[in-house]
Structures are given as structure tokens and as C-alpha cells.
Amino acid sequence: MSALLGALGSISVMAQSTNVYSLNAVGYINVTVDPGFNIVSCPLIASPDNTLNTLLPATNGAYAGFQFWAWNPGTASYTEDVGLPKKWGSGGTETLNPGQAAWLYNPNSTNVTVTFVGTVPSGTNSVTLPADSFQLVSSILPTSGDIITNSLMNFTNGVAGDQVWAWNPVNSAYTEYVRLPTHWPSDPIQTNVGGGFWYFNAQSTNNYWTESFSVNQ
To answer: Are 142 and 193 contacting, i.e. CB atoms less than 8 angstroms apart?
Structure first.
């Protein structure tokens, strides 16, 4: 749990001031968005939902010129939305739920920090890795590091031929990891909290990346 707490900014002061206490881990994360294309995720359950309109409200022009690209493995195509001066051009209804990742294009010449607020997913949750195809995914939980040995991420059921493609927005290049029959030659990394990566499932059936968390861990 220490890795998660280290990544999650606490907003417990808000709860204490009203004498309301929750059994859920509530907080926020700050995600740095470099100029150009970034793979981002929101590993928190936001209120009232995890749509663009909630996570990245564009009503004040903050995301004018930004582009959001969500991947659909079923059609092998993207759904795009573009930030306008006071709204998202396609309605801002695209989702970024825990475990999902998407491209976010920053048109500025400097970094932008976006803040996500919400509840850490609790219990046991899974990310679907579609059969014989790529998917943009992330850890369901707000943590980073080695996705195999990290005790919160704990993804151990890959098969030979599986691939992880991690994007570096600074040099606009991927780091590729390909699984051998019995192991990964080097362990795949999710570099940042609120980041993500491409995962290729080499099986002919869906695979699942399952993570579990409770506040008692």
C-alpha cells in the first residue's frame, strides 16, 4: 500500500472538517502532460463519472487545442475529441475509467499539469486484454513501476509473444518489451502514475489483468 499512498495526494482534511469518514481511499493525482502526444489514464473513480467533461472540463478554455484519442480494439480505430474554447468538440462523453488509457495531445510548448480527484478502486477489478490484438491500458490503481513485481499491479499471467509498448513523450519513442515462453527478458514498466501503455495479447482468447486493493492493505 505504501506505493499507492506515496502517489495519492490526500484530501482527508476535507473529510475531517465535516466529521465524515470514508472506508474508501479518496484523494487526487497530478499528471504531467508534456508537449505533444502523451498516454494518460485516470486511476480514480471520479464523481459523477469518468467522462472528459468531468475529468478535463473545457468550459473555461483550459483545453482549447488539446486532442483526446481513445482506442477501440473491436474496430481497430480511434475515437477523437478536440478541445474548443468552451467545450469538447464531440461532446466530451468519451470515458477514461480506471484501467483505460488514451492519447492526450498537448498543443502547448510547455508542460501542463492536470489533476484528477476521486476514489481509489477497491475490491478486485480487471482490465480486459482483447484476444490477438493491441489495447491501450493502465494500472487500475494509482501506482507506477514494474507491472510484474509491483505488489499492487501484480500482472503475472502473460504468455509468450505478449508485448508491452511504453511511450516516452520527451523523445517521442517507444520502449518495447516482448515476453519469452517463461518470462519477460526485462520487466515492463508503467513509468508514471496516470500513465499507460499499449499491451498486445498474443492469445486467441481474451486475457485479464486483475488487481485488488482494500484500505486495510
So the answer is: yes
